[in-house]
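In response to the reviewer comment on reproducibility (Comment 2.3), we provide here a single inverse folding case reported in full, input and output, so that an independent group could reproduce the run without further information from us. The structure tokens appear first.
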């Protein structure tokens, strides 16, 4: 079995892997491009930084992380998403839960030394497991922020929200397992209404209102809270959510994580589906799971087998998989699927 420390360190050096931290409705993401200049590169210390963003995992907390591997359905029937959720028990995961804009002082823990004089402000989103912050040295923005500390950014008359969107300060997601820092512009009017490629943030008020710590489509055990996510290379789409040719190696690499870290019954269900397909069982002869995650695992397995059959098998096996998909993974059924790339 692979050691979690080794998994995290190796993926920090993997340019195809992505990372995120935050909560449901407020997320900071770290991505890097092949050959991108590195301003900090110490995977053994769980640190990586480029000119566009940075990530650091707390080495002392890594040993406490409980990983949960999972896959989720895409609205597009030819693909799916996957990730390794980095969780802690509820008692260890809590953030500060500030509900108003709050000045925290110089960010002495910033990944890059040059950023440690800039002033950190908690945006006051009252997230359960993340302090979602901005960081700036801009005197004009600092003046507006200080004038409006103690107020909600969502107050209709608060000018701080508009000032933040105009000034594009660094965003910093702070959790008990580490931080992600984003140096690029905020997705909005200045970026054509979409998030820029690479490190970026999403702030989605309609999701924040739900008060959830994670998507309902993510099978996180009740005693755990996800503070961040490792997003290994996806075999069917790139980091911007565009379709790509099926990559069997990336698929196999995640499947090894899934076998080790998924909810224990889901790999067993996948095995049962594959065994049934191998015996040429027709779909009406297969008993469908009543649990929503079990049903999703069935659909995900069939999507993956469809892509594998397209690439390697074809013939009667492909026809059998198609019949199973018609029975269990109808194209019209997207109610339990998550957006592949919100904000892009």
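Designed residues, in position order:
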């Amino acid at each position: 079995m692979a050691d979690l420390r080794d998994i995290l360190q190796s993926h920090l050096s993997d340019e195809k892997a992505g990372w995120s931290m935050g909560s449901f409705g407020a997320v900071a993401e770290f991505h890097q491009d092949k050959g991108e200049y590195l301003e900090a590169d110490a995977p053994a210390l769980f640190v990586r930084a480029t000119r566009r963003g940075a990530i650091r995992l707390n080495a002392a907390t890594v040993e406490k992380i409980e990983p949960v591997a999972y896959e989720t359905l895409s609205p597009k029937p030819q693909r799916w998403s996957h990730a390794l959720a980095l969780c802690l028990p509820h008692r260890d995961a809590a953030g500060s839960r500030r509900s108003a804009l709050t000045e925290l002082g110089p960010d002495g823990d910033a990944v890059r030394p040059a950023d440690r004089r800039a002033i950190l402000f908690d945006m006051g989103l009252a997230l359960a497991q993340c302090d979602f912050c901005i960081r700036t040295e801009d005197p004009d923005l600092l003046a507006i922020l200080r004038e409006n500390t103690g107020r909600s950014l969502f107050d209709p008359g608060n000018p701080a929200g508009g000032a933040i969107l105009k000034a594009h300060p660094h965003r910093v997601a702070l959790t008990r397992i580490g931080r992600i820092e984003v140096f690029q512009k905020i997705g909005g009017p200045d970026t054509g209404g979409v998030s820029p490629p690479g490190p970026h943030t999403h702030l989605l008020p309609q999701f924040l209102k739900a008060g959830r710590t994670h998507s309902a489509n993510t099978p996180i055990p009740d005693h755990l809270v996800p503070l961040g996510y490792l997003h290994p290379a996806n075999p069917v789409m790139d980091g911007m959510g565009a379709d790509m040719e099926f990559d069997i190696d990336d698929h196999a690499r995640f499947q090894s994580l899934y076998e080790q870290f998924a909810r224990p019954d889901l790999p067993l269900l996948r095995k049962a589906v594959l065994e049934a397909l191998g015996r040429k069982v027709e779909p009406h002869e297969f008993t469908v799971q009543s649990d929503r995650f079990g049903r999703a695992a069935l659909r995900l397995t069939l999507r993956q087998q469809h892509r594998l059959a397209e690439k390697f098998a074809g013939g009667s096996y492909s026809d059998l998989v198609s019949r199973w998909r018609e029975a269990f993974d109808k194209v019209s059924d997207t109610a339990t699927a998550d957006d592949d790339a919100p904000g892009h």
